[in-house]
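Q: I'm building a small set of examples for a reading group on sequence design. Run inverse folding on the following structure and report the sequence directly after it, with nothing in between.
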């Protein structure tokens, strides 16, 4: 069969095919049978999602042939102009900019479902949605985040619902006695002409964490999507294994890939002037940059979630195991 014949049939019936409510495009290509591409040319109908023939009205079915030319139906999803991940998205998918109104910006990880109600919630990090414990339940969550020109009056997409508190190993002291001692010591240092100054820190060496995670409740559920940019809709979870090939979709670096290099690790993470220790964490090579926090880690060969990105450096990226995240927040994928 000549390509010109297929094109002629496609052009002749193009408007008829495009008029069907589930169709978003039409072209020519090779027919796919049982998941494998054949060498048979055909007219291809691009649809939002494949629907069983029995569930469609006869008028909405794509004919099996057009003037003797075979057809095929390919699921491509909803087609949208490709905006930057730092832009305002409505509806918003996973992988784009988001953040508490008092932080810069992180990544909208994905949609999870509350175990008690089945309600859809936005998943990201505590330090992205809950300002590292300093937020209040109900605080506005912006998409995009403030670093990407998000504004509370225009871009509020959700409200903080709950978070896993971070226990800090060290943080600035709040004790009045300690602060008084430091103030006196610094006064003496100034009198002596010293340029050194004292700072008081509260120490809690026993503090250990498993997850830096939070969820937000969308103001309008129709304004958030289950899918993650360049990955798709997540279907369950899987435990990590050494050498596992993984990927993530984040606000700053987009889609990146890597593999699990270290498991069950204890790491010390800096949160500005505070420090926290995390146990049982996953480590990969460099897959992220600032602003990617909150990205969902996904197994490369499937749509199963592995972890939640929350920290990194130029040499490595750190993830909470997904099961710890879901159990802490009482949600499921």
């Amino acid at each position: 069969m000549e390509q010109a014949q297929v094109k002629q049939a496609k052009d002749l019936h193009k408007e008829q095919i495009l008029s069907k409510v589930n169709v978003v495009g039409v072209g020519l290509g090779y027919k796919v049978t049982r998941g494998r591409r054949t060498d048979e040319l055909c007219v291809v109908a691009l649809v939002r999602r494949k629907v069983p023939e029995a569930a469609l009205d006869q008028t909405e079915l794509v004919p099996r042939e057009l003037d003797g030319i075979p057809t095929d139906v390919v699921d491509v999803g909803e087609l949208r102009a490709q905006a930057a991940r730092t832009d305002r998205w409505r509806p918003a998918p996973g992988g784009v900019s988001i953040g508490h109104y008092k932080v810069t910006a992180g990544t909208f990880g994905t949609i999870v479902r509350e175990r008690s109600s089945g309600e859809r919630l936005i998943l990201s990090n505590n330090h992205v949605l809950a300002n590292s414990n300093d937020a209040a339940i109900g605080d506005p969550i912006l998409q995009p985040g403030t670093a990407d020109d998000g504004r509370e009056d225009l871009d509020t997409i959700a409200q903080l619902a709950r978070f896993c508190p971070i226990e800090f190993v060290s943080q600035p002291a709040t004790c009045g006695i300690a602060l008084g001692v430091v103030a006196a010591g610094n006064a003496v240092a100034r009198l002596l002409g010293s340029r050194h100054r004292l700072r008081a820190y509260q120490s809690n060496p026993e503090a250990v964490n498993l997850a830096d995670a939070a969820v937000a409740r969308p103001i309008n559920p129709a304004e958030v999507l289950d899918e993650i940019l360049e990955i798709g809709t997540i279907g369950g979870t899987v435990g990590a294994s050494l050498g596992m090939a993984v990927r993530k979709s984040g606000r700053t670096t987009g889609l990146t890939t890597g593999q699990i290099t270290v498991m069950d690790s204890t790491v010390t993470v800096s949160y500005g002037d505070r420090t926290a220790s995390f146990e049982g964490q996953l480590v990969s090579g460099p897959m992220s940059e600032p602003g990617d926090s909150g990205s969902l880690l996904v197994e490369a060969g499937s749509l199963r979630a592995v972890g939640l990105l929350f920290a990194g450096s130029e040499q490595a990226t750190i993830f909470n195991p997904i099961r710890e995240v879901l159990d802490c927040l009482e949600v499921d994928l």
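The CA atoms of residues 142 and 154 lie 9 Å apart.
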